[in-house]
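quick one, 408 residues, struct below
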Amino acid sequence: MKALILAAGEGQRMGPLTENRPKPLLPVAGIPFLEHTVLALKEAGIGSVMVLTGYLGLSIKEHFGNGSRFGMDISYVVQPKQLGTANAVNAVRDLIDGPFLCVNGDVLLTGPLVKGLLDLHRKDGSCIMTLAQVEDASRFGSVKVEGGRVKCIIEKSGRVGPGLVNSGIYILKPSIFGHIDNTPLSTRGEYELTTSLELLMGHEEVLAYIPEVSWLDIGSPWDLLRAHEIYMASLKEDIRGKVEDGVHIHGKIVLKDGAVIRSGSYLEGNVIIDEGAVIGPNSFIRGSTYIGKGCKVGAFCEVKNSIVMDGTHIPHHNYVGDSIIGERCNLGSGTKVANLRLDEGPVPVTIKGKKVSSGRRKLGVIMGDDVKTGINATIDAGCMVHSGARIGPGARAKGTVLRDSRVL
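---
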């Protein structure tokens, strides 16, 4: 069976993180998130994958190539204009001659989940929608199920509460394309695959598959942190770089070729230190942290539960917690990132001009590429700092710092 990964969207809610890269290439536990999806498909026995690309799609193609280094066959279809999920699926109709697995490129996927989905299809042969039980269905809308069949899909109602939601993972048959042809524009101005599926349900059954595994939709930066925490929990230790005398390591770490942990440093796993990165001397790296290629975390710095992308320097006397830092950033000495409110309530974040709750008690900064801070700068919890910004010596950044702007 072929698989289709929908990875064309811009990911506007990801803020500064997608200014220079598509959302599927954001790093999670040391590799692009989309790579976790590809590897899960391979684990389940799927060898042929089509990736639908759009925004900055060439970089996705450059990373995965033809799939040979993954032992898979990977091809690409371009969606020039993002007109909704039904429009996205329709882009491959001439390449499909039988049932196919369709997965949104921004959902957490595992091999066992895919295997269970394939087993169910082999038994019944129907189209299948994978569902997830969540505590708050208001963000996603909900799905009504009777006798193992999907009966209806309820749009977002705004009512907070538990429910079954569409997890964005399907097995579809070529019959879906005729219903896509009859799918009207939604109120959002898009052609929605859920509407096409409702039309399909008027003619054939759609099975509900509710696996007992973790599910996560990465719609916001803090979702990326959560996915990172999930994948880091199963880290397998691999030390190839240099660990100097006087380093203390507790828990599992991955230390890649050319990376160095200098004397006096203390690491609490699980931690990944990528190629050529230098840690210490006298640094403190705490669990669920990824330090990218060529990064520097210098003397008397603490980094915890964070993603630090390639080429970024956190050189001395810095604190970074529960944060995502883009590429080639440099934090001046004494820069501190707050990650906890005084009232210990959920940290709010401003996205697309609207303040929303992250739902996280601890959340630091979401920082784009090529940002620099001066000495003793401070950054408030939940701050979004866009690419190229400068935060001056002793300055305080809060809310949203726009691209190439100055906080002095």
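The radius of gyration is 22 Å.
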